[in-house]
Amino acid sequence: MATYTLPFEKPILELESKLKELRSFSENQEIDVSLEIQRMQAKIEETKRSVYSDLTAWQKVQVARHPLRPYTLDYINQITTDFQELHGDRIHRDDRAIIGGFAKLDGQPVMIIGTQKGRDTKSNLECNFGCAYPEGYRKALRLMKLAAKFRVPIITLIDTPGAFPGIESEERHIAEAIAVNLREMFALATPIIVTIIGEGGSGGALGIGVGDRILILQNAYYSVISPEGCAAILWKDRTYADKAAEALKLTAPDLMKAGLADEVVPEPYGGAHADPQAMAALLKESLLKHLAELRQLPVADLLEQRYQKFRAMGEFAREPAVEAPVPAEEAADEESDAEPATT
Question: What pTM does this model have?
Answer without folding.
Answer: 0.84
